[in-house]
Amino acid sequence: MTGSVAEQFEQAVAFHRQGRLAQARKLYEALLAVDPGHVPALNFLGVLTGQIGDPLRSVELISQAAALDPGQPGIHSNLALAL
After folding, report:
1. CA torsion angle for 55, 57, 62, 65 (degrees, to 10)?
2. Is the four-CA dihedral 58, 81, 8, 32 of positive or negative sign?
3. Among 1, 28, 49, 72, who pairs with 58 as Cys (CB 3.0-4.6 Å)?
4. Which of 2-6, 20-24, 59-63 has the lowest mean pLDDT?
5. Structure pTM?
6. pLDDT attached to residue 3
7. Rounded alpha-carbon distances, angstroms, from residue 14 to 7, 63, 68, 70, 74
8. What's the pLDDT tens digit per position in 42-52?
């Protein structure tokens, strides 16, 4: 993985927004391999897994993000949608 964690995350989000879900997923997972507590990557990967039809994994990932950073309303909103 090249570039900073922030740059890689921005690229993953860009892929996600473009509907390039496989590429976004690969980057989110690569970020989490380096930093398992990267809250935004957990949250967005959770959203993505829900989009591709894995609601249980979606809830698991977003719940991890919420536990690590409970003060983020967007994460709780995503969790509610996943549930």
Report:
1. 180
2. negative
3. 49
4. 2-6
5. 0.94
6. 78
7. 10, 23, 24, 25, 18
8. 999 999 999 99
